[in-house]
Every structure is written in C-alpha cells, then in structure tokens.
Amino acid sequence: MNDATAAPAPSTETPQQLAEEAAAVIAERTGRPRHDIALVLGSGWAGAADLLGETTTTIDNADVPGFAPAAVAGHSGSMRSITVAGSGRQALVFGTRTHFYEGRGVAAVVHAVRTAAAAGCSTLVLTNGCGGLDPDRAPGTPVLIRDHINLTAATPLEGATFVDLTDLYTPRLRELAREVDPTLDDGVYVQFRGPQYETPAEVRMAGILGGDLVGMSTALEAIAAREAGMDILGISLVTNAAAGVSDHPLSHEEVVAAGQAAAGRCSRLLADVVGRI
After folding, report:
1. In a domain, 3, yes or no
2. Is 240 flagged in the annotation as binding?
3. Alpha-carbon span 147 to 168, nearest angstrom
C-alpha cells in the first residue's frame, strides 16, 4: 500500500485535549477568555436563549472542533455567547446536543460539557424534553431533576476514575429554582439509550426502580460535569405521557409540538433562574 492509499493514522488526541481546543476556538471567536455558566437546551427550551440577555456572538457548531450539526428536529445547530441581563456574567448556550443513539460514542455526547468546563464554566444547566410517568403531570410541565438512573450501560469516565454522584444535581440550585417558581416539583430522570421510545414494560420497570421521567439524554452529561467539578441544575419538560401511561401513540411531532406550546413559560423560567445563579 503506497502513501496515496494509506489510511490516515488514528488520532492520539484525548477528549480533554479536544475540549481545550474547542474552548480556545470559542474564546477567540467570542473575544471572551472565559465563560461563567453553560446551558444545554433540549426540546422545548430553545426560546430561553433569547431571554437571557444580549447575544454577543453566535457560532456555527461545525466551526468548533468536536461539534456536529443538529441531528434532531427542533434543535439549533449553533452555540451562543450571551451576557446575562442584570448580572453581567457570560453564558455559553448550546442549542443542541449529541445524543448517545447517534452512535458517535460517549466522548462526543459529553464533549459540550467538557468544552464548557475548559472554557471556565463552573455551573451547567441541562434541559430536556421527556416522557412523564405521573399522569397528573400534563405535557408542558417543567420538573426539576433530583437524581437520575443511567440505563445506557455506558459512562464518560475511563479507568479508575471514582466520582461521587451523591447530590449530583446541586440542591442549592434546585432551591434557587423554587424561589423563582414555588410550584416546581422534582423527580428522578431515567436515561435510556434510544432512539426508539420506551415500551410500556420498560416504563413500568423505570417506575419500579424509582423513576419519574424517561428520556434519551442528560445523565451521561451530568456525570461528565461532576467529574469536571461543575455545579449542575437539571430541568425536564414533560412533553408527553410515557408509553403505557396513556393510550395515545408516541411521536416526535408530539414532542416538538408540546415543547413549542410550553416554550413561553419554560423560557421565562429558565432565564429567571439563570439570572439568579
């Protein structure tokens, strides 16, 4: 085999090195040597970015090492640097995430989290759209994540990296969110691999295990954030009743529609919470 047809050598760059490279590009493009808080906006949460404050820079994901265009309808394929109104802190807002079911590996799933940490962020806000196990939580209800169950059979940690996940979702941030909206309830989020929706039997299993919400994101990102020493606030938007909770068939169109219907309340809630962090 000659040089013209030889396969390229595998990259020896570690996930942390790639995150630092991405953070350097963000710093250069934004003119900000560091950011303070990062947000990952899931289904139903995109409008919050417009309410946080002044967007000083918008960057296409494809221009930053390790990032890819949005793979899910209803998500934005860009990231924004925003000066948070009232506090002057700088937020790094990701309009999409890489899901585990895309097959790009766990490192790609948590790349945004590691990039945020490398960019200086000490707080991470993770949002998502999810299925609800409680029939009293109607579509459009935001729920604070108190804890999670990771059913992906994967982790972003490698080797003998023993990370304490007690109080993974920072209690102080949940209390702060309740100061903004005292009606907020909390629950346990269960991450499945996806992309198929959970079966009714799997939903019943999640409930037996202690779960209240089911979805396809967030848990792996939270683990990576704790490894990086970040405080974490997780908020789910119930976009549909989980399989078997109602007799209504599940569809992604329903998820997007429920997110759009709840966008105003959720966006205002998130902007108010971030303004206080």
Report:
1. no
2. yes
3. 7
pLDDT on residue 8: 46
**What's the CA angle centered on 140, arms 94 and 58, to 5 degrees?**
20
Name the nearest CA neighbour of 220 among 156, 127, 124, 165. 156
CATH number at residue 124: 3.40.50.1580
Q: Which residue has the tokens 């995150």?
A: 19
Beta strand pairing call for 78-84 and 53-60: antiparallel
pLDDT in tens, 114-151: 999 999 999 999 999 999 999 999 888 999 999 999 99
2 labelled ligand-binding: no
| Max Cα-Cα span within the chain | 68
By annotation, the residues acting in catalysis are 198
**Distance (Å, whole) CA 252 – CA 270:** 23
Pairing between β-strand 185-191 and β-strand 141-150 as defined by DSSP bridges: parallel
114 is in an annotated binding site: no
Cβ distance 227 to 163 under 8 Å?
yes
Does residue 42 lie in a domain region?
Answer: yes
